[in-house]
Amino acid sequence: MIALARLRDPFMDWARKIDEIVDAVNFEGRIAKIDARGLTHKELNDLIRLCVEKGAEKIIVKNVCGQRYIGTRLYFPGKKVEIEIFGVPGNDLGMFMNGHRIIVHGNAQDGVGNTMNEGEIVVEGRAGDVVAMSMRGGRVFIRDDVGYRTAIHMKEYREKVPVLVVGGTSQDFLGEYMAGGVVLLLGLKGEKHKANYIGTGMHGGVIYIRGKVEPYQFGKEVGIVEMEEEDYRKVEELVKDYLKYFRGKGIDEKLEVDEIMGGKFTKLVPVSKRPYGRIYAY
Amino acid sequence: MKMKSHLLPEFMVERDTERCDNCKVCVKQCPFGVHYYDEETGRVYSREELCVGCQRCVVYCPKNAIKVIPYPGHYRPNDYWHEEYIRDIKKQAETGGIILTSCGSARKAKVYWDHILLNASQVTNPSIDPLREPMELRTFLGKKPDRLEIELDENGDVEIKTELHPNLMIETPILFAGMSYGAISYNAFKSLAMAAKRYGTLFNTGEGGMPKDMREEFKDCAIVQCASGRFGVDPEYFNYSAAIEIKIGQGAKPGIGGHLPGEKVTATISSTRMIPEGTDAISPAPHHDIYSIEDLSMLIYALKEVTNYEKPVCVKIAAVHNVAAIASGMVRAGADIIAIDGFRGGTGATPKIMREHVGIPVELALAAVDQRLREEGIRNKCSIIVGGGIRCAADVVKAIALGADAVYIGTAALIALGCTMCQRCHTGKCAWGICTQDPELSKRLNPKVGAERAYNLLRAWSLEIKDVLGGMGINAIESLRGNRDHLRGIGLEEWELKVLGIKGAGE
């Protein structure tokens, strides 16, 4: 017999009932304010859900410190709310999110927009690994850099095309297995991009990289093609939104669209829709 | 370079020309192009090198004129260089590719089910007659509380005070295993959904999403899968379900992902999976947001969050060497149900090397997992579903006595629909309309008829289970669960009996 301590559930066991924590919410008309200090993951999301159920259209959450899954438990078809976060939200921010908008006044951790369906996430800082993994729709804007495995297996279907815009650069495996969507890396710090294995196994979608990047950094399933007018138009629209969201919030007020658009862009697309079709004997 | 194939045919087609009236039914029925009609002679002939032995033409020949038999010619018999190795080498020499196959492992290996015998009551405790007495097969799947507090109200009725975790209620301990729309046809997928609904059990969507037109009707009997490819995964999909299953591994191909080839991604598959038509649907080997038990926990709770903690979350793995320790980690990560798929488990396509050489028998894996979770005092925290080659009701009974709460059947369910185990699912040409996306072939399976066959299988096995339970003197499946005293081994070595946790026959 192996003697072990009683199994605790890290999410459920310490979570208080909603009436014990409801004091953390303050309503001002359609705006709800939550003080997240000392709240567990589940407690905070219980309260955010309560706010939406009570008709809040905007939820401002202060003192966020690592609470996960903000925006996940808000599957209310047809309903769209805005969540403003002060502090650092935890992993899987907006995972599976369905149409809401999240603004983070600070950095974010891993899994921002993981398998997100619709909506928008704006992070006024950096984000960790697996940003926009398997994202299926909506938009994610990160002001600074992102970590490893960004936009892995992002996918699109008809008009549902997910978009990720990163102001800085990313780590390795950007766009691995990417099956659709648009990724834009602006490289605003001006340094050479360091990521390797960009687009390994890519079989759909497009990656735009501004700034210096060498062919050896790409996976063998991607091809570099010329930027066309249509691409510049698409990128410019995203750059405009990027500046709208971040100018004066860590990005120079005087930075202009033209200055960014004047940089060198590399466009990556998959070589084949079927990268691994020819390794089998039937 | 075009080269002549050195492969021998696998089957021989014998046509009784006395009976055959050249009606061409076999020509129409065979998707592999074996039979053809020669205008000049006005007769039907066969190219047997193309035959896969699916027996479709045999069953549908109105004159019973066709026999498909194993090809009698062979190389010089050799117990080491078995024909299969020679054949595979030749095939690889001609193609340079990984040998692809489908269904479950067909190799000769010890089948532990066949070395386990069941008990029956004799004089000292009476058996129960299931024809006269109620027999309870109803099963609840999900996390159970550590203790149950009850209160009696003023009428003397029992009220449960403990807050219960969400559980699934099924009327028989048999569920249909995950098979995606994409791997199998819409009609096969729907047949299983309809049968599950009618019988009061569950089917599993596999990782190809749930067609929009089925969501409302089948939401209470669907386990929806969240796999590494995250196909067709949206909040509605999760909320229109009875439970969610995170698929980590599959018995037929542990440790690798899967590719649904682009030619199978038709318009309706593409709208269900939410990827463009004609694109390969690639499921990566790992979930790229799960590189550890902690990450698994994160996904489990993400799924509980998106469904407002209303649905149990299952985690499915392939039975591999350290399965007991892995299962313990899964339970500690918060899984309400763990599903273990043995090395006999089927698939729509897998490299043969994975199917035949990777993984362990589910009987041993199940016994090890159940034992480990008991020792750690966490067996009540999860239910166990096992699958991977459950062939008959006796296998179900033995699995439950070894500690399973329920079983998944995949291959057996497809055989009920018409599958003959020809192992050519990966070609997409299934003559029985099951593993194909060809609209003409898919039409061969009428979902109403398919549902009835699958329903009948559930009914027949359930009746058999009741019979066996009665013989053991047990009237509820709950009393059999983990009751290894009802099992004895024959032809097993000491270590095997120890892993299975059973005595030898006569002991």
Keywords:
heterodimer, A: 282 residues, alpha/beta, Pectate Lyase C-like, 12-stranded mixed β-sheet, 14% helix, B: 507 residues, Alpha-Beta Plaits, TIM Barrel, 2 domains, 3-stranded mixed β-sheet, 31% helix, globular
Give structural notes.
The complex is a heterodimer of chains A (282) and B (507). Chain A is built from four helices and 13 strands. Chain A has 282 residues and is an alpha/beta fold. Chain B is an alpha/beta fold. Chain B contains 17 helices and 23 strands. Chain B has helices at 25-29, 56-60, 83-95, 186-199, 212-218, 235-239, 267-273, 293-306, 323-332, 352-357, 362-375, 393-401, 411-417, 439-442, 447-472, 477-480, 494-500, and strands at 11-15, 35-38, 43-46, 66-70, 98-101, 116-118, 139-141, 150-152, 158-160, 168-170, 174-176, 203-204, 222-226, 243-247, 258-260, 281-283, 313-318, 337-341, 350-351, 383-387, 406-409, 487-489, 503-504. The longest helix of chain B has 26 residues, at 447-472. The model of chain B has no long low-confidence stretch (mean pLDDT 95). The interface between A and B is large, with 58 and 54 residues. Strand 13 (280-281) of chain A pairs parallel with strand 5 of chain B.
Describe the protein's topology.
The complex is a heterodimer of chains A (282) and B (507).
Chain A: H1 18-21, E1 25-28, E2 31-35, H2 41-53, E3 58-65, E4 82-88, E5 98-105, E6 118-123, E7 139-142, E8 163-166, E9 179-185, E10 204-210, E11 222-225, H3 229-246, H4 257-261, E12 265-270, E13 280-281
Parallel strand pairs in A: 2-3, 3-4, 4-5, 5-6, 6-7, 7-8, 8-9, 9-10
Antiparallel strand pairs in A: 1-2, 10-12, 11-12
Chain B: E1 11-15, H1 25-29, E2 35-38, E3 43-46, H2 56-60, E4 66-70, H3 83-95, E5 98-101, E6 116-118, E7 139-141, E8 150-152, E9 158-160, E10 168-170, E11 174-176, H4 186-199, E12 203-204, H5 212-218, E13 222-226, H6 235-239, E14 243-247, E15 258-260, H7 267-273, E16 281-283, H8 293-306, E17 313-318, H9 323-332, E18 337-341, E19 350-351, H10 352-357, H11 362-375, E20 383-387, H12 393-401, E21 406-409, H13 411-417, H14 439-442, H15 447-472, H16 477-480, E22 487-489, H17 494-500, E23 503-504
Parallel strand pairs in B: 11-21, 12-13, 13-14, 14-17, 17-18, 18-20, 20-21, 22-23
Antiparallel strand pairs in B: 1-4, 2-3, 5-19, 6-22, 7-10, 8-9, 15-16
Helix pairs in contact in B: 4-15, 9-11, 12-15, 13-15
